[in-house]
Amino acid sequence: MATQGITIELSRIAGEAEFVAISEKGKVIKAFFIPIAPIRGFEKLVKGKNPLFVIEAVKRICGFCHSSHGIASAEAFEEALGIYPPKDGFLLREIIGSLNRIQSHLAHLALIAPDFIPRDRVPGFILEVLRVLEQVNAALTRIGGAPTHPPNIVIGGVSKAPTQSNLTATVNGLRNVLARVNELLQIITDEDKWRDKARALKERKFTKTLLATHLTYGDRYAIDLSKIRLLRYAEVHAEDPEAPEPLIKKATTLVVSYGGEYVEVGPRARMSKFRGFNGSTLADIQLARLMEIPVALERVLNLLGEVNVKAPTRVEAVIYRQGEGVGVYEAPRGTLIHRVKLRGDGRVEDYSIIVPTEFLIPLIEEAATGIPEEVVDAVPRVFDPCVPCTTHVIRLG
């Protein structure tokens, strides 16, 4: 069979992207994952704005990882302003962020289930996932103020503590969620019943250098920002004669390298670095994501037990001034970085965001090589890319 390029029909991912594979004898020898979601320009939008506006705006970069952006932004402003939230502010912030991670992983579980479990079990499985997700949404509403873009994340901590009745209801609800999640995981991890796509992912060995700063939160001191390099997608493939040039020019993303190489961020990186997970296949990326759900639930239940509903949850006053800050948070898909520079009046002079999918794009392309072309559409899904977060570049003229 001659070498041929095919555009893969992509579905069940967050956002818009083109996936082009070049195959030979039925196997992919090169792939291009090209985000083409329209540019929205949040980094430009927030220039000159008050930090109170900015933190609400950046939560709306994404409907999946809203809390992650809110927390990373808050921490960037707090460093710039010399603010340190009280203990319960941190506890509640981590609870909100972890509930957001569980939300995202459950939503992705519904999207990827057809690649793993028998076709006749898919509808019932997805329905149960959505029922569990509703319970998590209710918990986030009680603690964060809303199931998406939770308003309780503020500069200086969390705007208010939950009532004791909401705290008790959240604990009881999440204990039920944990039991139901474990039942769902038993179904999707039953390899004897996996479909062909899942088996192909299990056969493809794929390991990279791992980057993760924390198991359940984020740590700006666990990453060397000087090692980060941002490249336009078109630059990455500028010398590749097989790159689909018209599509390459439409790409609206940046690609991130760390220390001169492309690294893996996200669930497998976190579970490997902090929990001893050692899976080495593409399927193991999904298995690590599944394992993070009960880990996050147990962490939230422990933190809820530490919350004092009468303790302060935020600093009493925020004084605006000139400064620079960095916020790093482990979003559902991996390491998320917000950087801010403030003017003398405390308004934003410059703002930049590095999102996990920018790390993952070159890995998706590399991982697709060697995969049978009839199942290659599952490769992007196993990395769970969030394309709307990546839109940073627009071509003018």
Explain this structure to me?
- There is one protein chain.
- By secondary structure, this protein is an alpha+beta fold.
- It has one domain: Orthogonal Bundle (Cytochrome-c3 Hydrogenase, chain B), CATH 1.10.645.
- The chain is built from 14 helices and ten strands.
- It has helices at 42-45, 51-58, 66-81, 87-116, 122-144, 164-188, 196-203, 233-236, 245-250, 267-275, 282-304, 356-367, 378-383, 387-390; strands at 4-8, 17-24, 27-35, 153-154, 157-158, 228-232, 254-258, 323-331, 334-342, 348-354.
- The strands form four sheets. A three-stranded antiparallel β-sheet has the order 1-2-3.
- A hairpin with a 5-residue loop joins strand 9 (334-342) and strand 10.
- Helix 2 (51-58) packs antiparallel against helix 3 (66-81).
- The longest helix has 30 residues, at 87-116.
The CATH architecture name reads Orthogonal Bundle
Q: Which stretches are low in confidence, meaning pLDDT under 50 for 5 or more residues running?
A: none
Write down the domain tally: 1
Give the distance, in angstroms, between the N- and C-terminal Cα atoms.
40 Å
